[in-house]
Design goal:
This protein is 72% helix and 3% strand. By secondary structure, it is an all-alpha fold.
Length: 503
Amino acid sequence: MNWQVWLPLLVVLSSLLPGLIIFVLPENRVGLRTVLNISGAIAKLFLVGWMLWGVAEGHHFEARLALLPDIELVLRADPLALLFVTLSAVLWLLTTMYAIGYLEGSPHRSRFFGFFSLCVTAATGVALSGNLLTFLVFYELLTLTTYPLVVHRGTEMARQAGQTYLIYTLAGGALLLLGTVWLYTLTGTLEFTEHGFLHELDTAHHPSLIIIFILLIAGMGVKAALVPLHGWLPKAMIAPAPVSALLHAVAVVKAGAFGIVRVVYDVYGVEFAQMLNLLTPLAIAASVTIIWGSLRALFQDDLKKRLAYSTVSQVSYIALGVALFGPIGTIGGLVHLVHQGIMKITLFFCAGNYAEKLGIHRISQMNGTGRRMPLTTIAFSVAALGMMGAPLTAGAVSKAWLMDGATAANMPWVVWVLWASSLLNAAYFLPILWRSWFLSQPYAWPNDHPPIRQWHEAPWLLLLPPLVTGTAILVADVFATFEMSPLAWAQLITDREYFRGVP
């Protein structure tokens, strides 16, 4: 096999092999475990960078493993795959650093980091899947490897949250399996193909294809937290902060949103989906989720739960962009897959810092945190403003393209949904910023230990990741037109895969 075959496999193995080794390490082997974690994350980032350069130069990366005649596991690095896998690789490195600092001295770290690596391996497999079968396999592995992280604390609340998570995600996986098998019986193929592979089927199959679409989107919609399939996500916030960051920005919800993109564009094809009148119902479902998630976030005092309902709302921007028939909306949805990731992971890193250093879990306890933890609160503020779509942030780029896409698709009601979402975002984020920066601390925080110097508000492993991602939120806007920016890559995907030579 040549390097064009090996690279997709090595990207998957770069987190799988360290994870398997970490499982058997004694708890006291802190140094070796840290080396394995960081080296695996750096190796993955290097390999993904190599594939990014290769795809930009026109190279083709694909590995195939035959399971049965005409049934193969396929790993393929197309531009859409690389958008997701690059996000996962970059944020995995930062989340690994953060988790090492966050879990210092805690029990069961080998178990945690073993499953942590396997979770990222599954997310990488989802990103690089070249057919629906491979996607299904890694999608279910993602469920199984994330569950131990959700219940890591071992409390009764953690076990209940894990049970809810399994019920939802396994039910979603069953729907996805049913739709996949049904689709294979009709077509004899599950290969992801530019512009889809269903438009040539006889019109007699169209009713079946509509039902299959509903099954597939519902199966993906569980992890993407589409209403009413979102109930697991707020409950899963009982998990440690690095797990919450992984769920919301790197792996689970992104896998669901990414799957919706694949189904619409590489299974059905956007024009065929539009002909079957499937896109408008998807846009309505995404819009309902956007508003419902924002409204629920308004009434949460628990910081992580407010962020969880914000995720319910914000991730549906991706599905909404997919459902806007036209390249502009597609670009907005795809770039938001990246931008939401860096904004939301920043918020969860900061929430973890507040909990770890001050014992703060509720918004009502956050008075004066800006003066006590200024760097953390600056990063939180930038991410919150980005979620609102404030100028000079990544969120402004996403929302501008989505609004223009809605106008181009002759769906003006979507513009009103996006404006309403921005106002609701402001309504549940601005009070947090007001408390943090402008209100005085009325009492001692539960776990506060004043630092020797103000700049030592948290250990550097906890402070560096949110500062890096917070800076990235600003860079994503300022350098949006840069050749390798998320926006430019989303435009490349739209040009190369979805709207060139559409049948």
